[in-house]
Amino acid sequence: MSIHPLKMPISRDISIHRPAVSDDDGPSVVESKAAPSLVTVMGFDNKDVLFRSDKVGVVQWRDSMGDIVALLVRLKPDTWGFSRRGDNDWQEVLEIYGNPDAT
């Protein structure tokens, strides 16, 4: 059995590319693409805007029992982190970013 030395990872471009606004997009989508840091929550129809804010820092998902099962956290502008129940650091992330009183 031979041991192969570890190789350095290949550099990747992880920058966020802003998509072009198309005339085929609905008005809610067009408005969202034009506003930096804006978070838009929509129903199944792209004209059905449920919530919109540029102040969103954390998005929580809850299961049918009301327990938080996943968090999407704005770490800095244009950089989001995702954590879910079952991750090794879930308890730590939940203590820092979870809001037990939110429903």
Topology:
Layout: H1 27-34, E1 39-42, E2 49-53, E3 58-62, E4 68-76, E5 79-84, H2 90-97
Description:
With 103 residues, the chain is α+β, with helices and mostly antiparallel strands. It has 2 domains: 24-55, no CATH class; 57-103, no CATH class. 16% of the residues lie in helices and 28% in strands. The protein is built from 2 helices and 5 strands, in the order αβββββα. The strands form 2 sheets. A 3-stranded antiparallel sheet has the order 3-4-5, with helices on one face. The chain has a two-stranded antiparallel sheet with strand order 1-2. A hairpin with a 5-residue loop joins β3 and β4. The mean pLDDT is 78.
Descriptors:
103 residues; alpha+beta; two-stranded antiparallel ribbon; 2 helices; 2 domains; 3-stranded antiparallel beta sheet; single chain; 28% strand
Low-confidence blocks of residues:
none
Largest sheet: 3 strands, antiparallel
What helical percentage do the residues reach? Answer: 10-25%
Portion of residues in beta strands equals 25-35%
Looking at the structure, what is the overall shape?
A: extended
Head-to-tail CA distance between termini: 55 Å
- The order of strands across the largest sheet is 3-4-5
Main structural class: alpha+beta
Write down the secondary-structure element order.
HEEEEEH
Q: How many distinct beta strands?
A: 5
Total domain count: 2
Number of helices: 2
The Cα radius of gyration reads 19 Å
Overall average pLDDT: 78
